[in-house]
Amino acid sequence: MKNIHSYRNIDEYIQKKLDKIPWLNHIRVTREFYLILFFGFLFFILFIRLFWLQVFNHSYYEDLLSEQHVSQSLLKAKRGNIFAYDKSGKPVQLTENITMYNVFVDPKFIWDKPRFIDSLTPIVYSHLCEMYGMKQITKESCIKNIELYTKKTILPKEPEFFYYGSGIVTTGYWEYDRTGYNLQIEQVLTGFTREIAYGIIKDQLDKMIYIGVRTKNYLGFFTNEAFLQELRKANLDYISIEGNNYVYIIPKQVASISREITPLKALLTKYGYIGQYDNLEKYFKVQENRYVKLISDANPMIAQDIKELKIQYYQVRNRDKIPLFHGLGLEPYTKRYYEYGSFLSNVLGMVDKNGNAFYGIEQFFDTQLRGKDGKIIGRSSSWIGNVGANDFQIENVIDGNDIYLTIDIGIQKEIEMITKKYQEQFKADSVSILVYDPFDGSLKASANYPSFDPNDYNSTFQLKPLGWDNKYLVDDLTYLDVPIYVFTGGTGGTYRLATTSERTDITVAKYIAKNMYGPRVFVDKNISMPYEPGSIFKAFTVGIGTDLDEISLYDFYQDTNEVKVGPYKIKNADPKNCGGYNSFLNAFVYSCNVGMVRIAYGDGTGKVFGIGKESFYNYLDKLGFGKLTNIELAGESEGFVENSSTVALSRFLNNSFGQGLLTTPLQVAAGYAPLINGGYYVKPTVVKGIFDKKNNAYIANQKQILSQIFKLETSEILKNALFDVLDQNPELRPATHVEGYNLGGKSGTSQISYKGKYQQGLGWTNASFVGIVTRDNPKYIVIIQVRRPRSSLWGSQTASKIFGEIAKFLVNYSLMMK
After folding, report:
1. What is the CB neighbour count within 10 angstroms for residue 178?
2. Please, what is the angle between helix 409-425 and helix 799-813, to 10°?
3. Is residue 579 in some structural domain?
């Protein structure tokens, strides 16, 4: 057999091979043969490639085609609103979605910069000095706004004087001429004219509007301190944090985008910010100065002025026929607005400038309130735009649902005034009041003071030096719940909460929030801050004992004013009225701890039995203690109650008179309801109904009776016993008496523990009161909590006084029959 080397050339070899194949023996090996073979090979490769693209990569290229030839427009859903009712039953809208604007300019289109600035300056002035966002402002606020806008000092700055503790202040504090400083302020205010303001604003606009590249890219304004702390700790060279909250990226400090974007992206994802950035990479790149934000949060009136300015100068053009204000634009966005400011703010919650909901109804119903965005999808061409009227696909927008609350506007308004009045009068950390309907579980009012304005939530983060006027915050240990801050110092330093030792360290400069309590005012203490309820909890011990027939209120027992439990002693706070041979009603009226121990545990000898641990905690569980009520408010706490199988005897007995367990005011209200409504536990609610925008239907919220806990007779007995407490206790009657009405109630005082020990004295108690309006027609349960009153230790002298004022209002407001 010949091999290929036996032939004279390759042509002869190929020809011999072809001749042996019957259906190929007619082919001659010529130059044309090689040409056909070459092109045949190319077509084969092309076929394989097309097969691969169309079969295996079909989905990828279909998506790519859609991106290039399908246009998509987003239809933004309107956030639903929140309503409450006035006395007449008319719904009152508490929230609103308003359109605000950012005013920006593209410097590349500014062909007459001096004229542009001269024409725009009056509008910027109007924004800063006449209507800042949605607030009318004073002349001093106008100047401060200009200072913020221009980063230029206009008003004289008072030196920062600090109180360090133990009487030590910054050197020069006592010598400082405050009268002279106030005169300087007055002189600046008097001499500051519109013309001066115009000049300062023009200088700033001239600096802002330039053609070139940016040295830094604005990432955003962040209020989450945990995020900012982690960002600082990450020590990213390209990150700049200014003014504590403004975050910038410096592109020149970025060596590799793919590598250095990773830690920032992880942090943004962790804290829920990543959704705000469609293309995070662009912030890492040097950008031409084509977008300059001139005004933030401009109201519709300012926006209208901008529109009219563009129209006025539309015919003023350069040689390229570009209008003078062609580069000036408006960015509309929707802002959540609360027309009544701080009214009901702890129940409503808030929505920040980025559309994120926090606290209360806003957070709990965020998904329903947001609604669902719609889309318009259609075929398009880069040359002629949309193609084919019938090729559109529409996903309809569904606006957010409206939420209607059970809150009574009239009651809420009165309660809020009362909380403020008595927080200041009792020098308390806070006062919280809740008004509850025991029959349907609805919340009629819920107030805390101090509170906040959701339109101005950022102000809660503003700090000032701790000065002499607030020295008690560090010298008086009872104010330890008030946040104190220290500055870490150095470049990129930050403010953080002071440690316990730093609070009293006389070498450390300290800061406090301008509102004193900082972001803690966001917390609804009626649902989110459990505390030891004290003697108001004794109603449950009496109710359980009565329901189990362990006692009758008119049974007598011997009260020795103290009970020894192991190494501990339980004592009565009022030995005069508690000691001796007395009824259990007397123990309830005068809040005798030993009497509650007797109901819970018997006489301790086994001769007389009490409720017992298992039954006691079984009732508490059915009453909802130690678990969520599932009211429709974000941030509810479940509190804490011991387990009957593991609780120590001493803790069980402490629990019987309201110590050693944690409850929220709402849990107490829901628990008291079965004591006066016939024995039924009703699920608490703050929602009267929801208007479903998708189906255009109002859905009423139905009352939910979860279980019957007490017998009807028990409920009647307790209702009368609560009346007896106010009627027979001379400490309570004067403050709580309303002529012609039979009210019920129970006061409570619980000590506050510090470093594992209950403390003594003013500021070391929480005062409480549960009131019933009225015994004969128990329409309202009123829960009052006074945290750390410093005018009196006792709930009977603080919270009861508040109840008396509320009760008078409620009987008149509701036109109750005497």
Report:
1. 8
2. 160
3. yes
Within 10 angstroms of residue 786's Cβ, the number of other Cβ atoms is 28
- How far is residue 102's CA from residue 303's CA, in Å, rounded to a whole number? 9
For residues 49-73, average pLDDT: 60
Lowest mean pLDDT: which of 205-214, 413-422, 428-437? Answer: 205-214
The whole-number pLDDT of residue 450 equals: 97
What average pLDDT does range 688-700 have in this prediction? 97
Indicate the SS3 state at residue 731.
coil
Determine, yes or no, domain membership for 249. yes
Write the burial class of residue 613 (CB in 10 Å: 0-12 exposed, 13-18 middle, 19+ buried): buried
**pLDDT beyond 60 at 3:** no
Q: Which of 237-246, 321-330, 478-487 has the lowest mean pLDDT?
A: 237-246
Beta-carbon-side half-sphere exposure of residue 549 (alpha carbons within 13 Å)? 1
Q: What is the pLDDT averaged over residues 729-738?
A: 93
Instruction: Indicate the SS3 state at residue 773.
Output: strand
Q: Which CATH number characterizes residue 643's domain?
A: 3.40.710.10
Q: Report yes or no on 32 lying in a domain.
A: yes
Looking at 223, 257, 287, the residue that finishes a domain is: 287
Q: Are the beta carbons of 770 and 591 closer than 8 angstroms?
A: no
State the amino acid at position 676 in one-letter form.
I
| pLDDT, position 214 | 85
Our count of domains for the chain comes to 3
β-pairing, 82-85 vs 402-408, is parallel
Domain boundary among 287, 311, 343: 287
pTM for the complete prediction?
Answer: 0.83
Tell me if 172 is assigned to some domain: no
Domain residues for 20? Answer: 4-56
Give Dmax over CA atoms of the chain in angstroms.
136
